[in-house]
Design brief:
By secondary structure, the chain is an alpha/beta fold. The strands form 2 sheets. A 7-stranded mixed beta sheet has the order 1-7-6-5-4-2-3, sandwiched between helices. Strands 8-9-12-11-10 form a 5-stranded mixed beta sheet, covered by helices on one side. The chain folds into 2 domains: 250 residues, Aspartate Aminotransferase, domain 2 (3-Layer(aba) Sandwich); 134 residues, Aspartate Aminotransferase, domain 1 (Alpha-Beta Complex), CATH 3.90.1150.10. It is 35% helix and 15% strand. Its EC number is 4.4.1.8. Its cofactor is pyridoxal 5'-phosphate. Keywords: Lyase, Pyridoxal phosphate. One of its GO terms (molecular function) is lyase activity.
């Protein structure tokens, strides 16, 4: 931010535009420099021994990484932010920063699939007990607390099925036993949801998605509360995590347009959804911003906007052949993982093996769509021809 100004004094769009930039420190250039560095020189042995200068080694930070971390810290309202190599890496680091051998962690049953894989395959090796909970429990998650419960991992809305959670209620319950609360907030980004304001200790973003916004960089971020920051800072340094400066630069560049992109993503998504409601092949749409969505009131209370990611269920009796024909007939929607970029994407929803504390219809066929920045009428035409192709026979 500019001299003598604070983030609290400005609206979100202004903060996004100015945070993490110090033109006067870099000869007036608008953007911070892209610093490629390993070795940093010291003027004398006394400075080297005390670490008495802002930067001591490339792995421990540069003006480039500091700019993004500072920007995200201000946007999230955090004590500090650390960068990771991907969203999953951020999840792993956040978990390991607050868990130790002998601990018990509760994880929302609707969390991102790779989160579950990490929890099931890595945490038990360190004698950390993993248990999944139904996100509808809200504050009643406390009924699952054990003497060794150290953390509760949340994600809202849920991955693939988009269930909302009462994050403040969960956080209040966790505080009663001193447990750390984590939240994967990638869907809303720190622009549309402020997890730390809801009682969360570690706010996690797959920066690959909306922060970068152009499908060309892998990045994760973790923003911590005062309580969680020391442990996160220590672990991050001990693990030797460092992000390439060009990737950080692209994330900073994407951050500046986050607001205008998300606004368009949401507008386009609502237009596409309004059309999907008219199709007999569509049985249900899962998007918390809809008044008919079961999680709408929680979304309305805790979020200020919605992104371009949602899912819909095909009508009962839809076969795998029909579902596959729909995806294979799409032309503007790419078939690919990730989301958050400028382009539209589609994948079939597969819940088998990714739910244990909630029930689901194993025969139900669903689609997850990411609505990009194309003209929504063109996207609607593409969806129409794909549905026609899949269900014409």
């Amino acid at each position: 931010m500019t001299k003598n100004s604070t983030p609290a004094a400005f609206k979100a769009d202004t903060v996004l535009t100015h945070t993490g930039r110090k033109p006067r420190e870099f000869h007036g250039f608008v953007n911070p420099p892209v610093v490629h560095a390993s070795t940093v020189l010291f003027p004398n042995t006394a400075t080297m021994e005390t670490g008495g200068q802002p930067y001591v080694y490339g792995r421990r930070g540069t003006p480039t990484t500091e700019a993004l971390e500072t920007a995200l810290t201000e946007i999230e309202g955090a004590a500090g932010t650390k960068l990771a190599t991907s969203g999953l890496n951020a999840i792993a680091l956040a978990c390991l920063s607050c868990l130790k051998s002998g601990d018990h962690v509760l994880i929302a049953d609707t969390s991102y699939g790779p989160t579950r894989h990490f929890a099931d395959t890595v945490l038990p090796k360190y004698n950390i007990a993993v248990e999944y909970y139904d996100p509808a429990l809200a504050g009643d998650v406390k009924t699952l607390f054990k003497a060794n419960t150290a953390a509760v991992f949340t994600e809202a809305p849920g991955s693939l099925t988009f269930e909302m959670q009462d994050i403040p209620a969960i956080a209040q319950a966790a505080r009663s036993i001193g447990a750390t609360v984590l939240m994967d907030n990638t869907w809303a980004s720190p622009l549309y949801c402020k997890p730390l304001d809801l009682g969360v200790d570690l706010s996690i973003q797959a920066g690959t998605k909306y922060i970068v916004g152009h499908s060309d960089v892998m990045l994760g971020t973790i923003s911590a509360s005062e309580k969680a920051w020391p442990a996160l800072d220590a672990l991050h340094g001990a693990m030797g995590i460092h992000i390439a400066p060009d990737d950080v630069y692209l994330a900073l560049r994407g951050l500046r347009t986050l607001s205008v992109r998300l606004e368009r993503h949401m507008k386009n998504t609502l237009e596409v959804i309004d059309w999907l409601k008219t199709r007999e092949e569509v049985a249900a749409i899962h998007y918390p911003a809809l008044e008919t969505d079961p999680g709408h009131e929680l979304w309305k209370r805790d979020f200020s906007g919605a992104s371009g990611l949602f899912a819909f269920d095909f009508k009962a009796g839809t076969s795998t052949t029909q579902s596959n024909a729909f995806f294979d007939s799409l032309t503007l929607f790419g078939l690919g993982y990730s989301w958050g970029g400028f382009e539209s994407l589609a994948i079939p929803v597969k819940l088998k093996g990714n739910r244990s504390a909630t029930t689901y219809d194993v025969d139900l066929k669903s689609a997850r769509l990411h609505i990009g920045l194309e003209d929504p009428q063109d996207l609607i035409k593409d969806l129409a021809q794909a549905l026609d192709a899949a269900f014409s026979s």
